[in-house]
């Protein structure tokens, strides 16, 4: 193997993943003078270029783009960057960080092994050779395996199927109706994209919540930021770690930002169904009779978020337009539980039901029964092993541009503390070390 950066095979820290999280940590480690290597399977910030459809845009305002040393500084802070703008901004971040990184290298195994002087270290095996490191940070995100149910195998071969990660635009699909399975952020926005293009769209809904784009004269994100929602750690959330399993609220930043209301789409010809459960031998799709429940749940969350903003406004005597409550513009006349593919003219199916994590290559006893890492703010029970960039790792923004910098700074401090301890030195007594912060939390 030919090692980069002077032929080194050992580093104080190896960061697995060169997305926004891994690069954020690289920036923080460079600020501390800690030697490290970022290993990226494809190319830096790869997923933003390849796993987004053409009309994709942010669902959070541009001012929330706050990567370390690289905050959004454009002329539209309350706008929503589209795909090309996002990638341009991220290209600037890559150039800004100048991370010591190797691209096109796949990490196949991370194992803790004995090291010199009785200290353990990590063996990092890749498809091009092996490295060792005193500490390892897994920053590869939590969206690895596209979820496609076994039901997909039963669909007729003439029906074209894509996962949301593969969707680009309506012209990619054959003529005919489209079934979108799932109504989270991706499903709802892709359904809207197809609907606006004049395609006949059927949607198999789930229990995804939704929220308003604007309320009482302001962007809802601005209100929630004032209410310190984005500063709430997972340990203080009413659901605790359970919030990590929640589906994201559907809303869009498209055309300056607006609500996504499936009921309004239904008035305009979109066909809505409940949860997809099966496919009969005659080519008939089967659904649960829970469409009304799904729509009511989404609207209930929408109204509860707005009500929390109402309380905030009242408590602080803020002048704002009057409150309102969303009332349904359409109700399902009946619960339809069957849909024949041929009779509906469905020529393509888009699976928009998310991703599952894949951390099988991390050989460490830090995972729960569902394969998710157990940690406190990214610090696992295995000394020197960390995770970064996961949804609700610490706050709502941990997996987004808005919160990953704070998490990266925290882990860099924990890494530095451990490095100093191993070298026989101690951090400044005036500074509260990261481990102490964790214990206090």
UniProtKB/TrEMBL annotation:
Gene3D superfamilies: FAD/NAD(P)-binding domain
Pfam family, one: Pyr_redox_3
GO molecular function, one term: monooxygenase activity
Enzyme class, UniProt record, top EC level: oxidoreductase
Keyword Oxidoreductase on entry: yes
Low complexity composition-biased segments: 426-441
UniProtKB keywords: Oxidoreductase
UniProt EC number: 1.-.-.-
Region (Disordered): 419-441
Name of the featured protein: Putative oxidoreductase CzcO
